[in-house]
Amino acid sequence: MGAYKYLEELWKKKQSDVLKFVTRVRNWEFRQYSAITRVTRPTRPDKARRLGYKRKQGYVVYRVRVNRGGRKKVAPKGVVDGKPVNEGIHKLKAGRSLRALAEQRAGKALGGLRVLNSYWVGQDGKSKFYEIIMVDPFHTTIRNDPRINWICRDKQKHRECRGLTSAGKKSRGLKVKGHRAKKARPSVRANW
Questions:
Q1: Which among 92, 99, 72 has a CA at the least distance from the CA of 171?
Q2: For a disulfide at 37, which of 33, 90, 96, 117, Cβ 3.0-4.6 Å?
Q3: Sign of the C-alpha dihedral computed for residues 167, 26, 20 and 128 taken in this order
Q4: What does residue 147 show for φ and ψ, rounded to 5 degrees?
């Protein structure tokens, strides 16, 4: 097994003593930084490489902190106007995952970069931490690389806001194929 395979197996066992200690220390460190921070290198290099990251010019990694929890409805004094079916306030969940939300915040803060993918790096009682792989579409190295220069096209602008990243496709139900997903393509609204 190569080094990346060892790292992959280590991250699979998150309840092990080694990873428990490392993540506890890392989470403390992550909390000290601002919500969106550039990191010099990926925390999980094996995972980043599987998702398309390359250690070359034009690729950057940002760590994003998002608050955990469901999405409680804002209703003054618990009054919800309308039908009884919409009375719920608690136990409501967002339509998109926290990972998709982290990608969106990074893409909005760094408008000149394109979001390629993202992965989980840690969480505590209050927050979740994700690392977002971003690409500079105007860098010569990226534009000359036939494996990644598709992201330089105009239609890839703010792909994270339109559900085109992996996390976005998952929330749209596009990770499922076959007879169970007939109503999901091209989108739920288009197939209604």
A1: 99
A2: 33
A3: negative
A4: -85, -15
> Both tokens of residue 117?
């993918």
Tens digit of pLDDT for each residue in 26-66? Answer: 999 999 999 999 999 999 999 999 999 999 999 999 999 99
User: Phi and psi dihedrals of 99, rounded to 5?
Assistant: -65, -45
Instruction: Tell if the pTM clears 0.70, that is, is over it.
Output: yes
* 67-112 tens-digit pLDDT: 999 999 999 998 999 999 999 999 999 999 999 999 999 999 999 9
Q: At 132, list the tokens.
A: 């977002």
For 148-163, letters b (16+ CB in 10 Å) and e give beebbeeebeebbeeb
CA distance 118 to 114: 12
Whether the Cβ atoms of residue 188 and residue 116 lie closer than 8 Å to each other: no
Q: Both tokens of residue 65?
A: 């902190």
Write out the H or E segment, with its range, that includes residue 109: helix 98-109
User: Looking at the chain, which runs of residues are DSSP E strands?
Assistant: 36-39, 59-67, 114-123, 127-135
Q: Which two tokens stand for residue 120?
A: 């989980």
**Rounded Cα distance, 26 and 10, in Å:** 16
Best CA proximity match to 44, nearest among 65, 63, 25, 59: 63
Q: Is the dihedral of CA 50, 52, 56, 58 positive or negative?
A: negative
Peptide bond into 186 cis (omega under 30): yes
